[in-house]
Amino acid sequence: MTDHSVIPVKPELAQGNRVDAARRAEMAERAARDPEGFWREEAGRIAWMTPPTRIKNTSFEGDVSIKWFEDGVLNASVSCLDQHLAERGDQVAIIWEGDDPNSDSKVTYRELHERVCRMANVLRSLGVKKGDRVTLYLPMIVEAAVAMLACARVGAVHSIVFGGFSPDSLSSRIQDCDSTLLITADQGRRGGRTVPLKTNADEALRSCPSVKNVIVVRNTGGGVPMEEGRDHWWHTLSEAAAADCEPEPMSAEDPLFILYTSGSTGKPKGVLHTTGGYMVWASFTHELVFDYRPGEIYWCTADVGWVTGHSYIVYGPLANGATTLMFEGVPNYPGVDRCWQVVDKHKVNIFYTAPTAIRALMREGEAPVKKWSRQSLRVLGSVGEPINPEAWLWYYRVVGDERCPIVDTWWQTETGGILISPLPGAVDLKPGSATLPLPGVQPALVDGEGQLLEGAADGNLVILDSWPGQMRTVYKDHERFIQTYFSTFPGKYFSGDGARRDADGYYWITGRVDDVLNVSGHRMGTAEIESALVAHPKVAEAAVVGMPHELKGQGIYAYVTLTSGEEPSEALRKELVAWVRKEIGPIASPDAIQWAPGLPKTRSGKIMRRILRKIAANETDSLGDISTLADPTVVEELIGNRVG
Ligand code: WTA
């Protein structure tokens, strides 16, 4: 399956690159030898009110404390907006492309600055102060970026909840961080359908007493009830607000945002990122990895509800004065050629998407791609899950006409930005490999006992030392931060991913080694789906595992034990799928539900997921040792009733 062929840097295409192989090596060497000096210089890429003198103060031991640029003072919105006004105030900052191909708009840096200032004033007038949490539940519209930057401007900590999440998921995320204000829209649009955001928000807010005010963007114009005293129209408030706003001075280690992400146990964790290090990392990686050049049009297809949207639609590109394209829709609406149509329409130079989208488009053949010229494309990126060599090669040959380097970027919500990726024009490519760490990043592989592995090896992917964009803590739960990331292999950051390193030192990410699923590039904890299932009155017990899925990468396979007296039926299966969608959101819909009168458990009652994964993957000839099970006969029964 693995394709070892190397695609060397094409010198003619690398012309004008900021970083070539020699420069990359130089940067990596300097960052390793003199991290203080290296990062002091890189910090200069963003705007400081007081430049930092203390650069790195981090420890992965004991209580785990991570501080970068700690005596620096700045405001992220100034780096993204004010700093560009003199030089490129009239340059387009955001190109917005609607779900409907006939709707688009452009916002210059000057206009964006004004809109952010107005909204920042609105937030202040509603009592939002530095450190307060504001939840955003928005579609992919310009107001989402405005709202993020407005929070940053007043020092509020934003927590974005993906618009595809259910009211329950929204309310638990609001409750966890006690937001005082919610920003949402009447409705969203995706693939020709509307998403009832305000209705969902109203339902969520019934159990969120901390929220005193709701700001509602009139987006589709679909009528929604407004609660007197609590709900306010964005446009009314915004029009009445002043167009300039003093930015709040923030210490580098003041929080910028919280973003909830799934882990192997319990509820989603509030990943906390702070201001200085995150901004430096977002800017540094966006420029290096995409070889961003002034004037270029850059398009990342992610949603701002995920970390990719935070770092590579908003903060990184805007810090670098780029023109960033924000797309409201989906890759296959109204046709499967939508991406390439948009590329031609806006002359996109850099395109960054997920393997799941590439696989889905690949299935439609070359014709929809070839219909458009794609001449503007220069660099192609991939993120979110391992990209199989077949999809990689299709992306390279068909979409990029063998002209555009592919940057397969490995990173996580926790890492704030890209850690392992080729740099275009500087690193030879291997289809399916995220290749080499960025300068300043020290990945390593360890075995199950935490022993460092040398040379070509297969193991658990850890990072040995801190980088500026690293998450600082789990919101209000530092103990969980230490437990989750630094206890498995003490003194090292454990990513939760497995990886292989080949003889050239290239990393091949093999996927999660914990109970986290990656479904179409979306992270999901099996525990979350299980607790949604057992919340159904007819379900006694549930175990969820991932199964290989051609398009999604991983699908969701659920084993369900019904309460006594309940009979399995097709109607009940559908009911449970709908139930999970309602509890968590459509992205968590199980692909398969197998009725399981019994689950394979050890004598101490622990479910042996290894066996359940094998059955779901239809690899039943390699189940391994099942003699430790309390009742080995359940395995035969499960194999016999496998679904799919
Ligand atoms: C997976 C998304 C292989 C990985 C930015 C990681 C990848 C999880 C890649 C984080 C890649 C992300 N190759 N796997 N290029 N990029 N992953 O937090 O399992 O939503 O741990 O961040 O996605 O997902 P998250």
UniProtKB/TrEMBL annotation:
Annotated ranges, domain AMP-dependent synthetase/ligase: 82-463
SUPFAM superfamilies per the UniProt record, alphabetical: Acetyl-CoA synthetase-like (SSF56801)
Residues recorded as bearing N6-acetyllysine in the entry: 606
The protein's required cofactors: Mg(2+)
Residue positions binding CoA: 190-193, 308, 332, 520, 581
Domain AMP-binding enzyme C-terminal as annotated: residue spans: 528-606
Highest taxon of the lineage: Bacteria
Record's protein name: Acetyl-coenzyme A synthetase
Catalytic reaction equation(s): acetate + ATP + CoA = acetyl-CoA + AMP + diphosphate
InterPro entries assigned: Ac_CoA_lig (IPR011904), ACAS_N (IPR032387), AMP-bd_C (IPR025110), AMP-bd_C_sf (IPR045851), AMP-binding_CS (IPR020845), AMP-dep_synth/lig_dom (IPR000873), ANL_N_sf (IPR042099)
Alphabetized UniProt keyword annotations: Acetylation, ATP-binding, Ligase, Magnesium, Metal-binding, Nucleotide-binding
Primary gene name: acs
Record-stated family: Belongs to the ATP-dependent AMP-binding enzyme family.
Binding site for ATP: 384-386, 408-413, 497, 512, 523
Molecular function terms, GO-annotated: acetate-CoA ligase activity
Positions annotated to bind Mg(2+): 534, 536, 539
Top-level EC class as recorded in UniProt: ligase
Catalytic activity, EC: 6.2.1.1
Known function: Catalyzes the conversion of acetate into acetyl-CoA (AcCoA), an essential intermediate at the junction of anabolic and catabolic pathways. AcsA undergoes a two-step reaction. In the first half reaction, AcsA combines acetate with ATP to form acetyl-adenylate (AcAMP) intermediate. In the second half reaction, it can then transfer the acetyl group from AcAMP to the sulfhydryl group of CoA, forming the product AcCoA.
Post-translational changes noted in the entry: Acetylated. Deacetylation by the SIR2-homolog deacetylase activates the enzyme.
